[in-house]
Write a structure and sequence with these properties.
- This protein is an all-alpha fold and 189 residues long.
- The protein is 72% helix and 0% strand.
- It is built from five helices and no strands.
């Protein structure tokens, strides 16, 4: 096999292990986004939102973000992160890290607002605080979902990498046939 192609290859076992790690983290993020609810069964903010539970969402989101950032840092330190396919994976992981880090502060804001809500005596203030809580909590959950989507995309990049090299195991990138395009007509020259 051409040495240049060999450098571009991410070993199959490494790629499969990474795909499994990304998928595992993706599932954890989606589970958190689904399970961490603010609204009660009727779709309203509870009369006394549980601060302890809401701040735990922030702590758990921080832990998930740490894991995503660590996955990204670990991959960035490999030689694979510098080749074409690895760079695409790293870009997806970078986005996942950013999105994951955005979630925890919104969960923390939700918890802080829950404390303010307890001290609120005016109905207009309470309504404004409830709206803020709903928006912050929904935003945090959206960041968890977006993180999972970026991890899914990183796993797809690795899957595509494995597919390309399965079909063309000894071909260099220049040797891989490009799709044939129609020749321009004389009118368009």
């Amino acid at each position: 096999m051409n040495p240049n192609v060999q450098r571009e290859l991410i070993p199959r076992d490494d790629a499969l292990r990474l795909i499994a790690e990304f998928d595992n983290m993706k599932v954890k993020l989606l589970d958190a986004a689904e399970q961490w609810q603010l609204l009660d069964g009727t779709g309203h903010v509870p009369a006394a939102p549980p601060y302890a539970e809401l701040i735990q969402h922030a702590a758990d989101a921080q832990s998930l973000a740490h894991n995503v950032v660590q996955l990204t840092a670990d991959f960035a330190q490999t030689a694979h992160s510098t080749n074409r396919d690895g760079s695409a994976v790293l870009a997806r992981l970078s986005t996942a890290s950013t999105m994951a880090c955005f979630a925890a502060p919104y969960f923390a804001e939700t918890a802080e607002t829950a404390l303010s809500l307890r001290r609120s005596s005016r109905p207009a203030d309470r309504q404004q605080l409830e709206h803020r809580m709903v928006i912050d909590h929904a935003t945090a959950r959206a960041y968890l979902r977006r993180t999972s989507e970026s991890l899914r995309d990183a796993a797809k990049e690795l899957g595509n990498h494995l597919d390309i090299h399965r079909f063309f195991p000894t071909a260099t990138q220049r040797e891989i046939p490009a799709p044939s395009l129609p020749k321009p007509s004389a009118r368009h020259r």
